[in-house]
Write a structure and sequence with these properties.
4-stranded antiparallel sheet; 4 strands; 3 helices; 102 residues; Alpha-Beta Plaits; globular; alpha+beta
Length: 102
């Protein structure tokens, strides 16, 4: 792969307060279909922690950093940010790299 064409793997951790859990879950679920249909999206899975039902993880794989950056500019992401701005207790984004087999 050329420079900038390396796959991008991300894990976004979104924690909701108890009173906002259902709202945040609905907002996250609404991202799944449009995001999975975006160019460069290889994986976009929503999971919930077994230890903390208010902690959601979005596991993402993008064909390139550019594809992810384009995703971050979509209308559905802007809508999500606007709707959830004051309802998310914490948000963390971790960038990961795949390790090939030996």
């Amino acid at each position: 792969m050329g420079v900038g064409a390396e796959k991008l793997i991300l894990i976004a951790s979104i924690v909701a307060e108890d009173e906002n859990r259902d709202f945040i879950l609905r907002a996250l679920r609404a991202l799944l279909s449009p995001t999975r249909n975006e160019a460069g999206c290889e994986r976009y899975d929503l999971v919930v922690s077994d230890e903390d039902p208010n902690r959601f993880l979005m596991i993402e794989t993008w064909a390139s950093r550019g594809a992810w950056l384009a995703h971050m500019e979509t209308e559905h992401i802007a809508d999500f940010r606007e709707k959830t701005r004051d309802r998310i207790a914490s948000f963390e984004l971790e960038h990961l790299k795949s390790i090939p087999a030996a």
